[in-house]
Amino acid sequence: MNEKTTEDLEKLRDLIDGVDQQLLHLLRKRLDLVAQVGAVKHSAGLPIYAPQREAAMLGKRRAEAEAMNISPQLIEDILRRLMRESYLNEKDVGFKQVKQDVGNVVIVGGEGQLGRLFGQMLTLSGYPVKTLDKDDWAQADTLFAEAGLVIVTVPISITCDVIRNKLTQLPEGCILADLTSIKTEPMAAMLAAHNGPVLGMHPMFGPDVGSLAKQVVVVCHGREQEKYQWLLEQIEIWGARLVEAEPERHDKAMQLVQAMRHFSSFVYGLNLCKEQADIDTLLQFSSPIYRLELAMVGRLFAQSPELYADIIFAQQDSMEAIGDYLENYQRALELLKSGDRQGFIDSFSQVATWFGDFAPQFQQESRAMLQSVNDMKSN
Amino acid sequence: MNEKTTEDLEKLRDLIDGVDQQLLHLLRKRLDLVAQVGAVKHSAGLPIYAPQREAAMLGKRRAEAEAMNISPQLIEDILRRLMRESYLNEKDVGFKQVKQDVGNVVIVGGEGQLGRLFGQMLTLSGYPVKTLDKDDWAQADTLFAEAGLVIVTVPISITCDVIRNKLTQLPEGCILADLTSIKTEPMAAMLAAHNGPVLGMHPMFGPDVGSLAKQVVVVCHGREQEKYQWLLEQIEIWGARLVEAEPERHDKAMQLVQAMRHFSSFVYGLNLCKEQADIDTLLQFSSPIYRLELAMVGRLFAQSPELYADIIFAQQDSMEAIGDYLENYQRALELLKSGDRQGFIDSFSQVATWFGDFAPQFQQESRAMLQSVNDMKSN
């Protein structure tokens, strides 16, 4: 690289540095303004996530960008990233308390990751939160006596037993709710153990999310919805989207995605381990799609074996789904071994037809996902 | 929402709109400056992707952000997204041509997606590109007579035959290269068919990438590297990262990631189809992680069945890997069926130990990936 080039590049880079300074100041300004929006919403008790407003705003920006010959997708991606930041900051202001004097909120299993997350959100919303963990059963009666809401979030393997054995003496008007990733059995157990309001929930996200904005919480109505409606509104104020479902329908869908996902990832990692794969080599060769896959599998093994054993062993019904998958895998492998190329193409086309318009939609979505994975690369 | 609130929100939103106007102008300015950097690099023949410079710049910005109480990750993510945009724009300027008078570049299979992508990149770099597709073999001799570089990118099922039968009469000094996703057999075929320079490559990305920046191209050296070194430099100028590998080592690694990935995704889709899953329901319930998974599976079925049949059937050796996976799956399912919780926990811990520090690293990476997937949600 000759001197002239070096000089030119340095000049330009200084100019870029200057632009980035202005960019930082603009970001600071925007974050502060959005924080003020948050404060206003907070005092008015409005949800932090307003899909329509967001869509309208993004639409305007996209149009303005196009007029300036800037890719609309660029400004949308940047603004979406900024919104995430603002959602995270909402926590600093706290959240509007939907209902006063509900009494204590007791979180059974409050020391677990998910229990802590909900405890934190409820505290940020002004509710008096008491946690009851495995060693605290001595004070249970005192805690329950004052309780207006009891949330069960203990290991899935003992959830139903805890409900059946420990939660039969709650105050009449107290809300009994759970956060278990299966719903049929825990719902039945809660309805049997408690005569008051009953609510089943399944937060569709890991405890490592910084904010509940845009996250999904599946809601199964148990009994006396009008009594726990405030809790659902509270969760919406945290930014989450509520999806109502029948326990059975929820569990069936979960078997197909969740149990399958956990089990396949487990076997995938087990397989890599048994094959003594060299992760460094795999990463060297890794295209965004394989890096993503490795990350998704590796992620599982950073977590507690007991937790996963509980999740997988709890879903006895999912064994059928897992077994079906095995059969389909065997049949597909037969096609390969017998060199039945046409047979493979036929089933492929059959599945493609079944996916219908979702296939191209998923292709587009995954492209965006893979691009942002590629953006993260640093070497 | 009362009038006061509406009023306050409107005021703040007008201010935010104003900030976003300035943001757009700043983006426009930065894109223009980076385009000038591209032009300087172009004339100097420097690669568009400069990892060190990028890392240094991001480091400075992160520090400045922290000083302003802005999350360093926010500015890094925004700048990375901006860089992607700039890489895409590089195409408009074209690329520095590393070597003059190489003669024609003939792309055998030039009508395929990958062939078109490489044809486009080479044309943007000033090389005379001729494509030779299945119906053009009549003019083959004329095309080859003038050729300084022949790139084979035909369906994997016929690659070796095409090399063996059609590419034996290339000019002595002509470079013979391929882009096949397996390397051992095509390399052997090329070395046998041609006495001149031979180069094997495997682009580790789909033809739908907008730019080669940060993408990986695996390189297998065949013969007379000094004669094709310019091509490797050219690819680096496009922003790609070259990873050298022995054909066998490459193919073994690919069996574990690529073949497995394709086949598992295929079976996963087949399974959803056979279970008659309701995709709408799955998406309603979808947490970022399942949405990502569905998108990755669905993506496969938006593509050509023949293409995938070719890829999967071409890798006979991978059948072993796929078979091993099946066995591990069966064994794991046995643990489930026999209710051997401890056995499950033991293998889980064994795999976790094997992943070692990669597990937490992958957990962190995947968190970032999942966050950006969540950002994309619009309802």
TrEMBL record, chains A, B:
Protein name: T-protein
Gene Ontology MF annotations: chorismate mutase activity; NAD+ binding; prephenate dehydrogenase (NAD+) activity; prephenate dehydrogenase (NADP+) activity
Keyword annotations: Amino-acid biosynthesis, Aromatic amino acid biosynthesis, Coiled coil, Cytoplasm, Isomerase, NAD, Oxidoreductase, Tyrosine biosynthesis
Pfam family, one: PDH_C
A single BP term in Gene Ontology: chorismate metabolic process
Record domain Prephenate/arogenate dehydrogenase: where: 103-366
Location in or out of the cell: Cytoplasm
Coiled coil: 2-29
Pathway: Metabolic intermediate biosynthesis; prephenate biosynthesis; prephenate from chorismate: step 1/1; Amino-acid biosynthesis; L-tyrosine biosynthesis; (4-hydroxyphenyl)pyruvate from prephenate (NAD(+) route): step 1/1
InterPro entries assigned to the protein according to its UniProt record, in alphabetical order: 6-PGluconate_DH-like_C_sf, Chor_mut/prephenate_DH_T, Chorismate_II_sf, CM_dom_sf, CM_II_prokaryot, CM_T, NAD(P)-bd_dom_sf, PDH_C
UniProt keyword Isomerase present: yes
CC terms in the record's Gene Ontology section: cytoplasm
Signal peptide: none
